[in-house]
Specification:
The protein has about 300 residues and is of the alpha+beta class. The protein contains ten helices and nine strands. It has two domains: about 160 residues, Ribosomal Protein S5, domain 2; about 130 residues, GHMP kinase, C-terminal domain (Alpha-Beta Plaits, 2-Layer Sandwich). Helix 1 runs antiparallel to helix 2, helix 4 packs across helix 5 and helix 8 crosses helix 9. One of its GO terms (cellular component) is cytosol. Pathway: Isoprenoid biosynthesis; isopentenyl diphosphate biosynthesis via mevalonate pathway; isopentenyl diphosphate from (R)-mevalonate: step 1/3.
Length: about 300
Amino acid sequence: MTNPLFYAKIILFGEYGMIEDSQGLVVPYSFYKGTLKFSDSDSEFEKKSNNHLQKYAVFLENLNLPEQFRLDVSRFKEDISNGLFFDSNIPQGYGVGSSGALVAAIFEKYCFTKHNPDTISKENLKNIKAVFGEMESYFHGKSSGMDPLICYMNLPILIENKENLDKVAIPKGEEGKGAIFLIDSGITGETGPMIQIFFEKMKTEGFRKTLKEEFIRYNNACIDSFLKKDMNPFFRNLKKLSHWAYEHFRPMIPESIFNIWKTGLDSNAYYLKLCGSGGGGYILGFTKDYEKAEKMLGDFQKEVIYRF
């Protein structure tokens, strides 16, 4: 396959909680995508991307990856000198995995050993995730490898805990009144500072306790009922999860979103949660009646990602 496309990803559930061993549910999002290409123009975007790849190649050269995951960095560098760049419409700082798609594309093209996402065993998923974590650490300082894994697999992944993850089927979307949607906060978010805030909060015993006893419980219950398509308990737990985030993730909620988050909780017309680390970018919305929610969220840019 020439120039395979690598899609963005959305963490439906598990942001921050996964750091503390909650479950996570991550799905590919095909509206945004990227692919490695050779430049045939002198556009600023292509030159900048090519330049970034040059620096990244130096980093990859010094990575000591296991034999079956080793990369042909010299071929990668040669391609870069011939104008290779990453052609992507995935917005950076929006929590949808811009660096993850790039890492997945490079791994797919330059790994000496070919791996087939359809036949990767559960055990090997863990190994690839660890490799992706090392490759993506260049961009974030520390990475779980989850973003590139989702982009690479292009399948929904259920994170059972820190050690175990597996491919999972999510219920087939249908044209119902309900929807999961994205809201554009209008500003970009930076992952690093948000994660810093989270770890600062984790130093207090009260926060650690409520994260473990409440956030993780609501989060895991949402995943469980969503995968079973059991919508009543799903929305019950979702409201608790949204309310918990409103109380405890306040610094991560963009100012522009603050009031509409509260309106959703008060009216039960929709519920919001962070998409990724927060601070900006996208916010996730869930509603049983999208038409009503859309009217209430009038001025905000919205994109529906799933109907039910």
